[in-house]
Amino acid sequence: MEEKLLKPPLVVFEVISPSTREKDEKLKKEIYEREGISYLVLVYPDLKKAKIYRLTDNGYRKIFDAVKDKFAF
């Protein structure tokens, strides 16, 4: 029996690599937005940082740039 998600996850962590950066930042972001993912975290291991977005009525809005700080969902 195939199990399906009944609702989207609260948060998605997308690890960004230099070779797929454009696809990850644009295409995947649009997909997650369309699917109703409340939070999107783009993780940049090469830069040692992350960008946190929250879904609003007008799409994703960046709410936090993380370098060494902590963030609670």
Description:
- The chain is an alpha+beta fold.
- It has one domain (11-66).
- The chain contains 1 helix and 4 strands.
- The chain has one helix at 21-35, and strands at 11-15, 39-44, 49-56, 59-66.
- Strands 1-2-3-4 form a 4-stranded mixed β-sheet, with helices on one face.
- Helix 1 (21-35) links the parallel strand 1 (11-15) and strand 2.
- The longest helix is centred in the middle third of the chain and has 15 residues, at 21-35.
- It is globular and about 40 Å long.
- The N and C termini lie far apart (33 Å).
- The model has no long low-confidence stretch (mean pLDDT 89).
Relevant terms:
four-stranded mixed sheet, 73 residues, 1 helix, 4 strands, alpha+beta
Assign the structural class, choosing from mainly alpha, mainly beta, alpha/beta, alpha+beta, or little secondary structure.
alpha+beta
Shape: globular
Regions with little confidence, pLDDT below 50 for 5+ residues: none
Give the distance, in angstroms, between the N- and C-terminal Cα atoms. Answer: 33 Å
Biggest β-sheet: count, sense, barrel? 4 strands, mixed
Our estimate of the beta-strand percent is 35-45%
Order of helix and strand elements from N to C terminus: EHEEE
Total individual domains: 1
Share of residues in helices: 10-25%
Number of H- or I-type helical stretches: 1
Rg over CA atoms:
13 Å
Rounded mean pLDDT score: 89
- Total strands: the figure is 4
Order of the strands making up the biggest sheet: 1-2-3-4
